[in-house]
Specification:
Structural class: mainly alpha
Radius of gyration: 22 Å
Order of helices and strands: HHHH
Strand content: under 5%
Number of helices: 4
Distance between the termini: 16 Å
Largest sheet: none
Length: 107
Amino acid sequence: MDVSTVEKIKNNPAYKELVSKRTSFSIKLSIVMLVAYYAFILVIAFNPSIFGESLSGGVTTIGIPIAIGIIFLAFILTGIYTKRANSEFDNLTNKIKEDLDKEQNNG
């Protein structure tokens, strides 16, 4: 890919929209994951007895399902990102490709 093609892509409004939306969405999902993870770690660090209590009198503590929930949260957030990437972000990428093809065919 030559420099002029890169510049055409960078100047494409759909590319700017794609970068803006993708970055904003990634940051939001990252914040959700980081808050959940660090809240879990901070509770373990400063008040571990909360997660150390037994769920039903057995050996399973409250911390285990919460930790599993955090792992599932990561999977869910990944799925949400993937779904949006495969629809909205791919549509914008295809629009950028079409615009570039039109410019190359006309010029």
